[in-house]
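Can anyone check this?
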Amino acid sequence: MQRFDARIEPLQHGQRVLANDAAQSWHGSCYQPQGMLAELGFRFLLGGAIVSLFAAFAEMWDPKTFAGLFGAAPSVALATLALGFYQHGGSYVAIEARAMVMGSIALLAYSAACVAIAKTRRLPLAVGAAAAWTVWLVAALGLWRLGAMTGIL
């Protein structure tokens, strides 16, 4: 697995780098107005189509609350990965997918904390919400750090 190695060369006396040139060399042409509008339009169409397909699929199941689950996160993740693959290739999408898995683990920790806190009736709502957010933050940052240390992110 290759790692990105950024080396910054010092500028010679009198040499200037324009911010727009640096942004275009780093991100390519996606930040030009025409490219950005086309990308946003494509994201809108692709995201809407995938959300609609997942929602139609979820209508076949009971209870109907599955429609919201299937219509939200999986469809947005697939649209994001499809666009990432189109723009950056497979290695970029692999890193993004691993980050999504780690994010879902942090969300699971947050959800478990919410359930545990909701069962505790003596805890004020604001304290419980802050505790659940703290659990999520610790899980997300811990998984991100673990991914960075092991090289999977």
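Reply from J.R.: I decoded it. The helical segments are 19-27, 33-58, 66-71, 73-88, 90-119, 125-150.
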